[in-house]
Write a structure and sequence with these properties.
Strand content: 15-25%
Number of strands: 11
Helix content: 25-40%
Number of helices: 8
CATH architecture: Alpha-Beta Barrel
Oligomer: single chain
């Protein structure tokens, strides 16, 4: 079964309409297309420039319903969001998510405190290495908190902090292990996000070492392209699938009504 779940449209920071994604999905013979625009609910006045569904949720759901009706019998539309994890806003976010007819929720960490993880290289370049290391440590603590919150189904683009080519110079194996244990305990899946091959990091999210940790813990995986354009719905899926098979995965996660099932990779 061919699926693409991490997909953004004009409802957040995508660069094409849902209808464009639908057209491309049918041309690619996808079985399931999931739209997962950004749902940003952060304490204070933090923004990451990705847009948010907060003011457009009814229109978003209506658009997904319309797409589902138009493609019935030809393509299954899955209703998703990519929601930021903020430890100060879990109750409010949980209330919103419960009110929506979603098939899955991608959980992502774009901020550690007030620091924007993936906004620009300049944000990282002005820091000294000890500051970068502490932000990366905080990132994994937030990933663990995200999993423990019970609000999410998929861990999105883990180790995002490497996007601009910066890597930790301290041992974060304990923090990473605790985060993966929390993901496994929460019954979440992890995406192999192919977008990492197209940024300065030139590596999929997450790293091969982290994916090995997922396999060791029995954490399910799925392929995603983090597509902001319709032409990228399955970008590098062949490369990602080969990597997952080499790790020993033969199944991937699929979702419906917040329930996970495993299908052939």
């Amino acid at each position: 079964m061919l699926t693409s779940y991490h997909v953004h449209s004009l409802f957040s920071d995508g660069r094409c309409a849902i209808s464009d994604h639908v057209r491309s999905a049918m041309e690619l013979d996808l079985d399931e297309l999931g739209i997962s625009d950004h749902l940003v609910l952060l304490a204070g006045d933090r923004r990451h420039g990705m847009g948010t569904l907060l003011d457009n949720l009814p229109a978003y759901i209506n658009a997904l319903n319309a797409a589902s009706e138009e493609t019935r019998g030809r393509l299954t539309i899955r209703f998703g969001v990519e929601a930021d994890f903020d430890p100060l806003m879990t109750r409010e976010l949980g209330d919103i998510l419960k009110s929506l007819p979603l098939d899955y929720v991608i959980g992502s960490v774009h901020f550690v405190g007030d620091f924007p993880i993936d906004r620009s290289a300049e944000d990282w370049d002005v820091l000294i290495q000890v500051e970068r290391d502490e932000i990366m440590r905080g990132y994994w603590k937030n990933i663990a908190g995200m999993a423990r919150s019970g609000l999410f189904d998929i861990a999105g683009h883990m180790d995002l902090y490497k996007k601009f080519g910066h890597h930790p110079t301290i041992d974060l194996s304990q923090e990473i292990s605790e985060a993966l244990d929390a993901i496994a305990g929460a019954g979440m899946a992890v995406e192999l996000n192919t977008a990492g091959w197209h940024v300065p990091a030139q590596e999929q999210y997450p790293s091969l070492e982290i994916l090995r940790g997922c396999k060791m813990r029995g954490i399910p995986v799925l392929l995603s392209a983090d597509a902001h354009l319709a032409e990228f719905l399955t970008r590098d899926f062949d490369k990602g699938e080969a990597m997952l098979r080499e790790l020993g995965y033969i199944e991937k996660a699929a979702f419906a009504k917040r329930e996970m099932k495993l299908v052939a990779l």
